[in-house]
Batch of 2 targets.
Target 1
Amino acid sequence: MAEYKIEHDRPGCIGCGSCAALCPNNWEMADDGKADEKKQDIGESELKENMDAAQSCPVNVIHIFEKSEKKLI
Ligand code: F3S
């Protein structure tokens, strides 16, 4: 169940690599030296490590949003 959404301002990434070091489950370094997230929709169990990655980013280009409940009827 994806409860959180990750946004990565990739143009602003300076390739420091701390996101991939702290959260290799969801962050990897691409051939161009910038990071890529493996998925943008994450659940509660993946939140902490992605928060650690976001907080470690020196240029603050990783953002995490809580998804709001969608009313179906
Ligand atoms: Fe880039 Fe920040 Fe990760 S600079 S490599 S998104 S920690």
Note: The first strand starts at residue 4 and ends at 8.
Target 2
Amino acid sequence: MAVLVTGGAGYIGSHTVAEFIDKGEEIVVLDNLQKGHRNAVLSGAFYQGDIRDSEILEKVFSNHDIEAVIHFAADSLVGESVQEPLKYYDNNLITAQRLLVCMVKYGVKKIVFSSTAATYGEPESIPIRETDRKVPTNPYGETKLAIETMLKWCEQAYGTQSVALRYFNAAGAHVDGHIGEDHRPESHLIPIILQVAAGQREVLAVFGDDYPTADGTCIRDYIHVTDLANAHWLALQKLRKTGESAVYNLGNGEGFSVREVVEKARVITGHSIPLQIVLRRGGDPAILVASSRKAQEELGWKPQFNSLGQIIQSAWNWHKNHPKGFDSIK
Ligand code: UFG
């Protein structure tokens, strides 16, 4: 039986595919390649197509004996979601609904869903626990929260078993160096900092230094992408063993401000990384730091690359060897 990974050519998706292959799983990837990279997926069956295209979805589910789905395919930019909310309702919510319809039709009962810290909005306390208040401050978080709720109702109606993983800030690259982060255009903090360090950009625009934090810049909890990937495999093991649905935060439990991330990157890259303070970006909460105790206790999850230095170093190794991202790989 196979595990279907939607969005498996994307950043977190491709690292998860690599992790599942390492564990000996049979993988099928479905990705429309709007954001993903074909050469980020080294093995397994690959289908290029969109979940909203019922023909390709039917083809995948009828060609393979799908046991479970790991669902990444989505748009995931906080700022863009504020500018274009309907795009997020379409590509995130409607896509998940179509996928679930097909899962129900083919009797596929297990799904690990890529959710986000953005479901919480402004946290009521730090570190954030799974049961804390959830009032998203952007349409991205809103659509992901709506999908979590949809999964709850699907369990009641169709017996769909789900694990929703609320990621904090994914960063870093695979330690063997064959895959890493490559968004077009890049919008995430660490790769942008590294583009400045590599001389591909002149300056890092810091989105606001008037937040209620010690240095005025936003604080985030950075988690290595391979540690996230491993949590997906553990989540599927839990579904296989217990069939019980659950929601888990995934972060390192330590927050770093934008200025602190820059400082660490200066040490690792040896570059001065000039900054320019600009206006706040819409939809950004001041502080997001996870309590991942539940994932550690119930899944046995233990992040391996849990220092900011290790995370930035792995991203820097990928960036130096692949200055044009996946276009650097022939
Ligand atoms: N930032 C800058 N300048 C930049 C880019 C980012 O100052 O050029 C700041 C942002 O304002 C934010 C921090 O750096 O304070 C991190 O920004 P990212 O864009 O790297 O990440 P986000 O926190 O916006 O979002 C990420 C994922 C989301 C997820 C969220 C959860 O992209 O999918 O983490 O914390 F929801």
Note: The chain has a mean pLDDT of 97.
